[in-house]
Amino acid sequence: MLTLRQGRCFGPGTGQSEGRRGQPSQSHPQARSSPPVGPRGLLGFVVQQAGRRCRAAGGRDYTSQGAPRRGRVVSPCRGEEEDGDSGRMESVLSRYENQITILSDYLEEFPETDEPVWILGRQHHLNTDKSKLLLDISARLWFTYRRKFSPIGGTGPSSDAGWGCMLRCGQMMLAQALICRHLGRDWQWEKHKKQPEEYHRILRCFLDRKDCCYSIHQMAQMGVGEGKSIGEWFGPNTVAQVLKKLALFDEWNSLAVYVSMDNTVVIEDIKKMCWSLPQSSGAAHSSAHVHRSALGWNKNAAGFCAGWKPLLLIIPLRLGINHINPVYIDAFKECFKMPQSLGALGGKPNNAYYFIGFLGNELIYLDPHTTQSFVDWEENGTVDDESFHCQQAPHRMKIMNLDPSVALGFFCKEECDFDNWCSLVQKEILKQQSLRMFELVQKHPPHWPPFIPPTKPEVTTTGAELIESTDKLFELEEEFEILSV
């Protein structure tokens, strides 16, 4: 077992740590072999240690970032004759991955304080119900970097490490909406406890397979239509647009996804979208229907019916130019208090986090920057879910360190939930504030183009076939794998 020392890591795989106040830690002869705390810091330490081990065996000399050092040409380590440096490092990392254990003891604990902690619309008090707080956090689905999944697009990357963090955060926000939709906000997850079928069905929607509706494969390829190449980093608004498009093909969850434009939420448009009748693309063969049912793509067993479609509301915002404007902080924190809250997407430049709450002036977030191996479902349809829940104290960051580009998320299962959200916004967000975080208006602005509720494109395929022509599929420029329902 590796010996860990206190600290926080910043920057993927650098092997450098920073203290609690952000100052670089002082080097110490006795601490040279100790890794910094945090998944990325541990990864950097593992690569560094692997490089030492490799050099000791006469192998290639690697830096802490995993690249060969210049000026040295040496033979590969024994047993690591895979093609290319990536194969060698994959082999080295796999040797060490089972030695890494991250426990809450090594992460920064919550301070002793009388201030309440807010997590997605629920209030907790550290002095009386800290255990309930940690259970609430561990119940959130935690999606991280994965490796060893099937190559995206057949020939693309088989890991999203280094570029997929915002996609993973978008998955976490959407997963929380699905949890609220099928299991309720107060549902709790317990290790080794049998969970309902709906829970495993939700998880299957996000597995790293090309035929799962919200997989990294589907999101990355749909991002091509938003001008993002596969393997390129996404921003909050791009992820929101991708989720909006993918949700049109997900008739089991049957969500209405509204992404606000120009910092404005239009009540009339949302109600028009949520009350519109879904369109069916026709009946499918029973065998294909059963196959897609296991993946979460099938039609609701009750069929289509008129009624309010559960609303996923995403509000992309720019809360400053280079730094967050302090005038927005109170309103931003109020959003986490609302019972409809799904948190926020954001973070730092090229470093995305899923923010789920706050304590004082610190934001609480789930960090996707941990690389885990691909997990598939079992023969009975269940998923080994331990790696999909963060079972340690969460990370925190000063709210003023937040990048100003964020996206707020809210879930309204019924129309009354949306009406209540509108009232809370008017009361808490728009009250006596000269510089509003966003606008909430009743009617569609007359100078805007007419609002037309999005509908699923008329595309019919079976299984995971490639669409030959994507002219009608959101004007994509490349082939995109999609399933018919």
Offer a concise description of the structure.
The protein is built from 11 helices and 15 strands.
Kindly describe this structure.
The chain has 485 residues and is an alpha+beta fold. Helices cover 26% and strands 14% of the residues. The protein has 11 helices and 15 strands. The strands form 4 sheets. Strands 3, 4, 6, 8, 9, 10, 11, 13 and 14 form a 9-stranded mixed β-sheet that branches. Helix 1 crosses helix 2 and helix 4 packs antiparallel against helix 5. The chain is globular, with a radius of gyration of 23 Å. The chain starts with 7 loop residues before the first strand and ends in a 44-residue tail after the last strand.
The number of helices is 11
What is the overall shape?
Answer: globular
Main sheet makeup: 9 strands, mixed
Strand content: 5-15%
Give the helix level as a range of percent.
25-40%
- Taking all Cα atoms into account, the compactness measure Rg is 23 Å
Overall pLDDT metric: 75
Query: Number of DSSP strands?
Result: 15
Structural class: alpha+beta
Low-confidence stretches: 1-47, 53-84, 91-107, 279-304, 460-485
**What is the subunit organization of this protein?**
single chain
Question: CA-to-CA gap between the ends?
Answer: 48 Å
N-to-C order of helices and strands? EEHHEEHEHHHHEEHHEHEEEEEEHE
